[in-house]
């Protein structure tokens, strides 16, 4: 694999940050300075700052994101999720939950696990509780469940459950940009509150807004 991917899989840094380490000459592979995009094997002799490169202990965090926090590791973005949590080691958010939404998001240093969750063909479930700006009927539920045309495609069939006259639960197996908001808008509704409560087998439960907790990989699968 490329050195950037190895560093990400080991929980050392992002692939982008890996490029900077290479530029600064801080990575040595089998006695020679690493070059950009270099292919490596785990059996290679790889040094970072003259110390043998070893995998970091995997970190898995469940965070109840408040409205207003932005799901990016980019330090120049105001209210970014990394600054908000202020974790002492390298972690990154898995996927996104838009700024206006709240609820469950995963942060980790495990690049392989993140890729498995994000690959849309894996059909991983994510569950949300959504409140819209007016009462809806059975036709709305059926239309949402069978698929809505957004962004030039029809959304995958999804599970819908009525909670109240203006609130429902929706379980998706894909993650198009602002998907639920776009689906509702197409059908004439505006999302007022959007909260993610589950990713696979990881539940938000009673985790307070703005708080996080560790979980183990078995909680996901």
From TrEMBL:
| Record carries keyword Cytoplasm | no
Q: Which residues form the RNA-binding S4 domain?
A: 1-61
- Gene Ontology MF, one: RNA binding
Q: Which InterPro entries match?
A: PsdUridine_s_RsuA/RluB/E/F_cat, PsdUridine_synth_cat_dom_sf, PsdUridine_synth_RsuA/RluA, PsdUridine_synth_RsuA/RluB/E/F, PsdUridine_synth_RsuA/RluB_CS, RsuA_PseudoU_synthase, S4_RNA-bd, S4_RNA-bd_sf
- Name the EC number(s): 5.4.99.-
> What is any one GO biological process for this UniProt entry?
enzyme-directed rRNA pseudouridine synthesis
Q: Which one Pfam family would you cite for this protein?
A: PseudoU_synth_2
Q: Which CDD domains match?
A: PseudoU_synth_RluF (cd02554), S4 (cd00165)
Protein family per UniProt: Belongs to the pseudouridine synthase RsuA family.
What is the designated name of this protein? Pseudouridine synthase
Which organism encodes this protein? Answer: Clostridium bornimense
Where is the organism placed in the taxonomic lineage, from the top?
Answer: Bacteria, Bacillati, Bacillota, Clostridia, Eubacteriales
Q: Which gene encodes it?
A: rluF
């Amino acid at each position: 694999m490329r050195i950037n991917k190895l560093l990400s899989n080991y929980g050392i840094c992002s692939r982008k940050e890996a490029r900077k380490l290479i530029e600064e000459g801080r990575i040595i592979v089998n006695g020679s300075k690493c070059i950009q995009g270099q292919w490596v094997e785990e059996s290679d002799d790889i040094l970072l700052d003259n110390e043998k490169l070893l995998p970091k202990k995997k970190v898995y965090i469940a965070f109840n994101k408040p409205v207003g926090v932005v799901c990016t590791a980019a330090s120049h973005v105001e209210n970014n999720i990394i600054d908000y949590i202020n974790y002492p080691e390298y972690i990154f958010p898995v996927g996104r939950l838009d700024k206006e939404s709240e609820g469950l998001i995963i942060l980790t240093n495990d690049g392989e696990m993140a890729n498995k969750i994000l690959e849309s063909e894996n059909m991983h479930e994510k569950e949300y509780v959504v409140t819209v700006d007016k009462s809806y009927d059975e036709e709305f539920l059926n239309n949402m469940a069978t698929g809505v045309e957004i962004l030039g495609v029809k959304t995958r069939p999804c599970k819908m459950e009525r909670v109240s006259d203006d609130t429902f639960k929706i379980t998706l197996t894909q993650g198009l940009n602002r998907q639920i908001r776009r689906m509702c808008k197409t059908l004439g509704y505006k999302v007022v509150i959007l909260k993610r409560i589950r990713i696979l087998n990881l539940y938000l439960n009673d985790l307070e807004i703005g708080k996080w907790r560790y979980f183990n990989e078995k909680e996901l699968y």
